[in-house]
Design goal:
Length: about 170
């Protein structure tokens, strides 16, 4: 089985990247390497250094097993009561005020909804058009890699491209 990504398992929830440092092997202990993991932030999650709060992440790739880390133990117990009757799920409530629930990808929607996972932003066609027009008005366009960049007139010098109020 290939690499498992949360972004391939769901289109409903917002995915963010969490950065961690790890040692690849005992020989490379002096050199830290960065690695990024996809996580789904849930209710109470605060990103950044010293992050805190609940999130859903990948626990194992083969077979794919997800985990809910929750700093809201009472909410985790409610989720556990909902899914504990199914095979292949287990939980760890032995951490002070925190809980871990392990489950298969088929329970992602249920666990995400009950944990208050943040939804992915969805836009109607009218909202997308308003955003596009706003970008055009602000002088922004997308480059070949999809990044937003400022548009500069081809026949103007750099001084002419800067609005008079900004000079």
């Amino acid at each position: 089985m290939g690499k498992v990504y949360l972004s391939k398992l769901t289109q409903k929830f917002r995915i963010i990247l969490e950065e961690t440092f790890f040692h690849e092997s005992p020989e490379n202990r002096g050199s830290d390497h960065r690695r990024f993991f996809e996580i789904i932030p849930a209710k109470g999650f605060k990103a950044g250094p010293g992050q805190s709060g609940s999130f859903i992440g990948l626990y194992c790739e083969d077979p794919p097993i997800l985990q809910l880390y929750s700093s809201r133990a009472q909410n985790a117990k409610t989720i556990w009561e909902e899914i504990k009757k199914y095979p292949g799920v287990w939980a760890d409530f032995h951490i002070d005020g925190e809980a871990l629930i392990f489950f298969g990808p088929e329970f992602l929607e249920t666990v995400g909804r009950m944990a208050g996972a943040r939804r992915r932003r969805t836009l109607s066609e009218a909202q997308k058009e308003r955003l596009r027009l706003g970008r055009e008005k602000a002088g922004l366009t997308r480059d070949e890699k999809g990044r937003l960049v400022h548009v500069q007139a081809q026949n103007s010098t750099q001084i002419e491209a800067i609005p008079a109020q900004a000079r």
